[in-house]
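Case study.
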Amino acid sequence: MYNEIDLDKIDITLGPPAKEPARQYYFIARCREWVRDFEQRNGRVPNSCVTTFGCQMNARDSEKLEGVLKQAGFAAEPDERKADFVIFNTCTVRENANQRLYGRLGQLGRSRKRNPDMKIALCGCMMQEAGVLEKLKKSYSFVSLVFGTHNIYKFPELLSACLDSDRMVIDVWEDTDQIVEDIPSERKFSFKSGVNIMTGCNNFCIYCIVPYVRGRERSRRPEDILREIKSLAADGVVEVMLLGQNVNSYGKTLEDPITFAQLLTEIERIDGLERIRFMTSHPKDLSDELIQVMGSSQKICRHLHLPVQSGSTRILERMNRRYTKEQYLELTEKIRRAVPDISLTTDIIVGFPGETEEDFQETLDIVRRVRYDTVFTFQYSKRSGTPAAVMDGQVAPEVVKDRFDRLLSEVQSISAEVCSVHTGSVQEVLVESVNDHDPSLLTGRMSNNLLVHFPGDASLIGKLYSVRLKECRGFYYLGEGGQIIS
Ligand code: SAM
Ligand code: SF4
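After joint prediction, the assembly is written out as follows.
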């Protein structure tokens, strides 16, 4: 793996190589030189802060940014106001995300007055949107570096250019067909890791900005994914989360197509790996083959996130989701037959243009019938740049709010019942951390994704541990240990 490359052996007096990822390692070595100079001038190493907005994909991208900064020699600083290099990895799924980012940037601009050498960088989905770059140039000219979602692998090269320049460095691409492997990353947890298996999205749900800012769907080659997971497992990772906007269509665009179910079967064989999770699954692409693999797997976790978005077939059609309420319900029944103890979670948007009270009742009905463990509820956001933003029938904010509140109360009472069914049983948890509020407790995650807090000491972190579930407190359990499973 390039993670083990000896950066000191790279001769930076020679020009950068053309080939990737060697080219990026050359630029990491150049950034190291900059860090050494900084240290000599200031008597300390420079520090950096990576702030992540949005989804798990962005969280995984941020681990790559952190990996590069660490290899370049920056120390991590959690407080962005005190950092020498700050990078915001942005999200743009909801309309107000951009306003919040500008607000945060304005505050940081004021902190920068105390440290004028502070470099501020922006990357991620928002940078891919029309008009954003112009606004940054006009009103936030103190920003040092801007790049998008398609060239994140070039971060070392862009960082080096930004450290050596006083001008705003900008590199935003429309799209790409390139996937560069082996850029270093800094895992947040030693025992679990996200693994990107694909990027982009081809579905164009008409409320969603993702296909416009993340580009077309591209799958990583299975051999690269397997090599990465084997090396993670050898490094102590016991759980992986396979990431993609629609993992069920994995492999379709590869030269030698393979299905997601086939990829999972290969991953299952990796020694040392104990748990496999994945997200997100689009219902229209969830195959019988995948359900069968989930049913027979020893490692795939008993949890499926299956966004429904609405319970009304009429609204689903308007959203371009390409399944009906009945098809979705049949699918959940089929999954439950194959994997009876599976926990289902979902995303629902309330107040999509044209949604009537009748449509909303269909959504309440699907929630009552599927009985989800958890529902992520969203008020429809009129995301500019998406076709839905100019659709007729935008629902009045007070109506959206009222439906949202009714949905939330239904969801909460059902999930309290559904989640509590495990009370008294002994479950395997992966111990993740010391509890935030009570240091005598540990927090672990069950296969079905529910959290359990139980007494124990930090030496258990990263271990699979059996815990008896004493009491359900809505969305989590209090438990008692237990013994180490592995
Ligand atoms: N690819 C995933 C899928 O198909 O479910 C999820 C991607 S999206 C970033 C995550 C969730 O954000 C979606 O499932 C949807 O519920 C919500 N979302 C996307 N656009 C939205 C909008 N304009 N307003 C409200 N919620 C939105
Ligand atoms: Fe957005 Fe639909 Fe693609 Fe998910 S599948 S990212 S909701 S367009």
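Observations recorded in class. The mean pLDDT is 95. Residues 201, 203-205, 208, 210-211, 245-246, 282 surround iron/sulfur cluster (ligand 2) (CB under 6 Å). We will return to this complex in the next lecture.
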